[in-house]
Design a protein that fits this description.
The chain is mostly helical. Among the domains are: 3-108, Orthogonal Bundle (Helix Hairpins), CATH 1.10.287; 185-222, no CATH class; 233-280, no CATH class. It contains 13 helices and no strands. It starts with a helix and ends with a helix.
Amino acid sequence: MSSNDRYNLQKNSDLETLENFKILISNIKSLKDKTWGCPWQKIQSHKSLIPFLHEESNEFIEAIFEKKADNICEELGDLLLQVMLHAEIGYEKKEFELNDVIKHLNKKIISRHPYIFKKKEKVSLEKSQQIWENIKNSEKETPHMKSSISKNLNMKIKNLPPMVGTDKITNVVKEYGFKWESTDQIFKKLEEEINELKEAIKSNNDSEIKNEFGDIYFTLLNLSNFLEINPESALQKTNKKFLDRFSIIEHHAGDNIKKQTPKDFQRLWQIAKRKLKRKNS
C-alpha cells in the first residue's frame, strides 16, 4: 500500500470518527434533556458521578491486564461517557462546555511539547519529561504568591484519593532530596511502624491504632513507589489470586463450607495454593 493510500484511509477514518462524535454529542444532550431525558442522568452532578468514574477507571485497568482488545475498547467508551457527562453538566451549570475541555487539552498538548509543535526536533525521553515538568510548573507559578512545598501539596492532594495523594507527595519530595536510598531502609521503617501499631493495639487506643495503621500503609506505598510498582494493579492481581484459591476451597468444601473450622480452611488453603502453582508452572 502506498503512503498516499494510507493517508486517504486515515483521512476517511478521521472523518467517520468526527461524524460519530457528533452523534455522541447529540446522544448525551438527549440523555440530559430536561423534558425527555433519562431521569437518573438528569439528577447527576460532578460529585455524584465520582464513584462511577472510579469504577470505570478500574474496569479499564482490569481490561488492560487481561489483554482483551474488545474489553479495552468498550471500557474506553465508558470512560469517554464520563467525560461527556461531566462536560454536559458543566454546560448546564454555565461553568464550561465540551468545546472548552477540548480547547484546553489541545493548548496543553501543544504548550508542553514545544519540540514537536514549534521546533520539530528529536529529544530524549529524559529531556521530554524535564520539559513537561518545567512547563507544567511555570504554568502554575504566580508572581504574587509563593506557597511552601507542603502547602502546595496539601492543595494538590485534598480532593485526590489517598493512595494517589501519597504517590504525589512521594514523587514531589524526592525531587528535593527527601527520598529513600534502599529497600532495606524502607523495611526498617516498616518494621518500626508495625511495632508501634502493636503497641497501640496493646494499649487499646483507637486513635493511635488508626494513626499507626496509616503510617504502615504510607510506608508500603513508598515501597511500591521505590520499586516502581503500581499498588492498585498489584492489589488487583492479589484479589484475583485470592478468589482463584477460594474457588478451589469452595469446590472441596461444597455445601459444608460454612461448617469448616479455621484449621480446615488453613488446610484447604494450602491445597488451593499447590493446585494453582502446578497449573501456572
